[in-house]
């Protein structure tokens, strides 16, 4: 005798294929510090260059926008060049009065 809560089995219902669990690629997130040199050009734009990443630079009209764009430029650079070698170490800048 069938239990009152039991549902009848529908033999016409298609069987579902078992799905494999997707592979999960782990990305290691490492916080890195980069040094940037900021200049103001003749048209009033702020221009930044990332010292450790050759060719990584951007520009903006405000300092806040420049920092945001520089972060984006670094992220894009690292997506294209995930492995890079820092060939020199940044020491700093110094103003000299003559």
Q: Concise description?
A:
With 98 residues, the chain is α+β, with helices and mostly antiparallel strands. It contains one helix and three strands; from the N terminus they run E-E-E-H.
Task: Give an overview of the whole structure.
The protein is of the alpha+beta class. It has one helix at residues 63-80; strands at 36-40, 46-50, 57-60. The chain has a domain at 36-80: Double Stranded RNA Binding Domain (2-Layer Sandwich). 18% of the residues lie in helices and 14% in strands. Strands 1-2-3 form a 3-stranded antiparallel sheet, with helices on one face. The longest helix has 18 residues, at 63-80.
Shape: extended
DSSP, total strands: 3
CATH domain fold name of the domain at 36-80: Double Stranded RNA Binding Domain
> Which class of the domain at 36-80 in CATH terms?
Alpha Beta
Distance between the termini: 104 Å
Mean pLDDT across the residues is: 79
Q: Which structural category do the helix and sheet elements fall into? A: alpha+beta
Helix-strand blueprint:
Elements: E1 36-40, E2 46-50, E3 57-60, H1 63-80
Antiparallel strand pairs: 1-2, 2-3
Search tags:
single chain, 98 residues, alpha+beta, Double Stranded RNA Binding Domain, three-stranded antiparallel sheet
């Amino acid at each position: 005798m069938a239990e009152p809560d039991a549902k009848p089995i529908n033999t016409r219902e298609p069987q579902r294929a078992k799905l494999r669990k997707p592979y999960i690629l782990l990305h290691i997130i490492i916080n890195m510090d980069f040094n940037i040199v900021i200049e103001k050009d003749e048209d009033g734009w702020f221009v930044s260059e990332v010292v450790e990443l050759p060719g990584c630079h951007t520009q903006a009209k405000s300092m806040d926008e420049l920092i945001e764009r520089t972060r984006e430029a670094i992220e894009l650079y690292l997506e294209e060049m995930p492995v890079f070698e820092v060939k020199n170490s940044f020491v700093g800048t110094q103003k000299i009065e003559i």
